[in-house]
Each structure stands twice: as C-alpha cells, then as structure tokens.
Specification:
Length: about 180
C-alpha cells in the first residue's frame, strides 16, 4: 500500500483489539489486490442523541487503479461490541469480494500469445486436393491447406518454395497456418 491506512472513529472510543482487528483486515486486503493505493475506514458508533434506531456504520474506501472500491455496512444496535465486530467483518468481507472480482476482470485476463514464425520449404504438394506438407527448418514436417495460404496464389505454389508460417496443434498433429510464400 502506497499510503498508511486512515482509520477514523466517530461517536465512540475504540478498544485496542478493534483497532488491531481493522489494521489486520486492511493488511489482508493487499493479498487480494497488489496495487492498493490507500484505504480509509470510518467507523460511526451509535449517536448518543437518539435512544431507538441507533446503528453502527462501517464505511470502507479502498483506492486502487480504476474505480475505487466503496463499501458501507450498517447494523442496528443491540449489543454494541458484537455489532461492531460483525459490521467490520461484513464490510471487509464485501471489500474482499469486490477486490477479487476486480482483479479477475482486469488482471486475470490471459493475453493471447501468437505462435512464433517458422521458416521452411514446401516438401510435398497435392494441388488437386488443396493441401501439402512443409519441411520446417528444424526438420519437422507440418501439414497445411490451401485456406492457410495468406501470401501467394495457390496455383503458383510449387515444391521447394521457401515459406514462413506459424505452427498450431490440431486434432491429427501439427499444422501450418498463416503460410506466406517467400520470394
């Protein structure tokens, strides 16, 4: 985390165990997202002005690249300590889920890698059937079809012509795609 977490308590005096619990939970958030910029936690205790309808509210703002994660969890007051711990737990649990989802959507994307370009020579050609075989420079034989030819005219393709291609794995073994005839 780039900045120290900011933890604020309103209308209440927190215990050391509550402060420690929040600090530990903030540290746990970094396991779900490696680039957290800052984290603000605001714990609003029950207001002393009202007797009924009092609630504990935990607000959590996690600043990350892109939209921030904002969570607000409130619980009615029955037993203040249990409600406070529960509200803290639920707020951080929600933030955990949102961070995991954000990482899955943004960082978990697999980048498509293209196969390397291989050079070779046309070894055998079955012009009427529309396929042939390329002898790659590494010695492997690779199948190709007319539809895989991207550079050149099928009617002008001959045995011993130099080509470049990308190799892919098919159901029956390796095949050449993006076959380009070299001049």
């Amino acid at each position: 985390m780039e900045a120290s977490p900011n933890i604020t308590f309103r209308h209440m005096e927190p215990t050391d165990s509550v402060r420690e619990d929040i600090a530990n939970r903030v540290a746990e958030l970094e396991k779900f997202h490696p680039h957290i910029i800052s984290c603000d936690v605001v714990v609003n205790g029950p207001s002393k002005k009202h007797v009924t309808g009092q609630e504990i509210v935990v607000q959590l703002t996690v600043q990350v690249p892109g939209p921030d994660i904002r969570v607000s969890q409130s619980l009615g007051r029955s037993q203040a300590v249990e409600d406070l711990n529960l509200a803290i737990h639920k707020a951080f649990e929600t933030a955990d889920r949102q961070l995991k989802e954000k990482v899955r959507k943004m960082g978990g994307v697999d980048v498509k890698r293209h196969a390397e370009i291989i050079h070779g020579t046309i070894d055998r050609l079955f012009e009427g059937e529309g396929y042939g075989f390329i002898k790659a420079d590494d010695g492997n034989e690779v199948y190709f079809e007319r539809d895989n030819l991207t550079g050149g005219d099928w009617n002008e393709v001959k045995v011993d012509m130099k080509v470049r291609f990308r190799e892919a794995e098919g159901d029956k073994g390796p095949y050449a795609m993006n076959v380009t005839v070299l001049s």
